[in-house]
Amino acid sequence: MEHHVYSEILEVFGTGRCRVSRIRANEKISRGMRSAENLVSEFFDIRVEDLMRESRGRKNVACARQVMMYLAHVTFGLTLGEVGRLYNRDRSTVGYACRKMEDLRDNPCHDRMLEQFERAIHDMAAQDRIAAEEPDSCGLMSEGDVR
Prior knowledge:
Layout: H1 2-13, H2 20-23, H3 27-44, H4 48-52, H5 59-74, H6 80-86, H7 91-104, H8 108-133
Helix pairs in contact: 1-8, 3-5, 3-8, 5-7, 6-7
């Protein structure tokens, strides 16, 4: 499942790994990451800004950040260092979060939660791809489209 989701994301977002300074500039990854952050923050009932805070925060904030760092690494294919820079953490902290999430996948409830996040991210990416390929309501293609 995990590899399938990752390959689907690569199909939509591209295969190149980028540096953090270019992550936010890459519109497709940036849009996907923002959507994932909104999804995770809504699920854990926190603000998106809490994910980037330098302080650890409440338990649910720390857990949400670990889930988001795991998704950024596994689903979007960002390196541990890139994820760490995005969330103001050291790459070893990101590695710990990813190992913890992998260990929690042994619990069916946690595994189902992470699968649902991965599926939602995949579905949002597919919708973005479909929206980019569809002509607008007047039947006109966007600038980059070729007929």
